[in-house]
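quick q for whoever's on today - can somebody do inverse folding on this one?? i tried earlier but teh output was garbage lol. tokens:
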């Protein structure tokens, strides 16, 4: 990761990882067939940067619209980042 704050352009590029991962996993689902694991992976990829207040990305959904698996992934992502900065 880059030290310091991202520029607005860098942040916009970074935000595309959610939809890129969603597309990749959706394509895998089409090739491999329906799978509960892949369905969960698609949800986690797509929604793990959504915020409870609706100010997240990429879709701006809020509250219970955000799948539980994505909420759990978001918490683990924050904890991982916090622990890395502590080391």
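ok took a stab at it. sequence:
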């Amino acid at each position: 990761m880059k030290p310091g704050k991202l520029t607005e352009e860098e942040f916009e590029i970074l935000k595309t990882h959610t939809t890129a991962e969603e597309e990749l996993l959706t394509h895998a689902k089409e090739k491999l067939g329906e799978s509960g694991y892949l369905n969960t992976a698609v949800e986690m990829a797509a929604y793990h940067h959504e915020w409870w207040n609706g100010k997240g990305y990429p879709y701006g959904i809020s509250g219970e619209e955000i799948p539980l698996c994505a909420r759990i992934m978001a918490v683990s992502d924050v904890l991982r980042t916090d622990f890395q900065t502590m080391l």
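fwiw The chain has a mean pLDDT of 93. also The two ends are 15 Å apart (CA to CA). so keep that in mind when u check it
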